[in-house]
Amino acid sequence: MVMQEILSAVDAELFGVWFLIGAALVFWMQAGFAMVETGFTRAKNSGNIIMKNLMDFCIGTVMFVLIGFSFLLGEDLLGFIGKPGFDIFTAYKDFNFSSFVFNLVFCATTATIVSGAMAERTKFLSYCVYSAVISALIYP
Fold first, then answer.
1. d(Cα 135, Cα 128) in Å, to the nearest integer?
2. What pLDDT sits at residue 92?
3. Quick check: 82 pLDDT over 90?
4. Furthest CA-CA distance within the chain
5. Bridge partners, 77 (sequence order)
6. pLDDT, average across residues 91-117
């Protein structure tokens, strides 16, 4: 019986490690998208493209932590969406941090995918607003 408990614990921890490896690989997709977009645009816009991809992750992280994650995995509200609130981070014992990190990097990458189509077509501030809306409301 003890061996079964040990194997169960190891299995759970390995799943978390695999989740974090996947999150690291998805995080590097951000750099890949930045390089592809920079290659497809004029040289004068390369700094703007890199900055937009950086802001995708920065704004996406803040909006996902404040609003998006509670919508995604918060307490059920009306059977449709999670209840917004900050109490999701208070139960550290039962909180799945690897799932949080995985969803965080996917949220930021989701906002970055569209940036290639918007390259050289939008102003920086309007793109930042788009990134905030995608990260807070659309991805979750």
1. 11
2. 59
3. no
4. 65
5. 81
6. 84
Residue 99 CB contacts under 8 Å (≥ 6 apart), including other chains:
19, 73
Distance separating alpha carbons of residues 62 and 56, to the nearest angstrom:
10
Contacts of 110 (CB under 8 A, 6+ apart): 134, 135, 138, 139
Q: Which amino acid is at 139?
A: Y
Torsion angle defined by CA atoms of residues 88, 23, 19 and 132, in that order, rounded to the nearest 10 degrees: 30
Q: pTM for the complete prediction?
A: 0.82
Q: What is the mean pLDDT of residues 1-5?
A: 84
Q: Label residue 69 exposed, middle or buried (CB < 10 Å: 0-12, 13-18, 19+).
A: buried
| Percentage, residues of the chain above pLDDT 90 | 46
Asked if 135 contacts 108 with a C-beta cutoff of 8 angstroms, the reply is yes
- Asked if residues 114 and 51 have their Cβ atoms less than 8 Å apart, the reply is no
What φ, ψ does residue 99 adopt, rounded to 5°? -65, -40
Burial class (CB in 10 A: 0-12, 13-18, 19+), 27: middle
Full domain range(s) for residue 103: 2-138
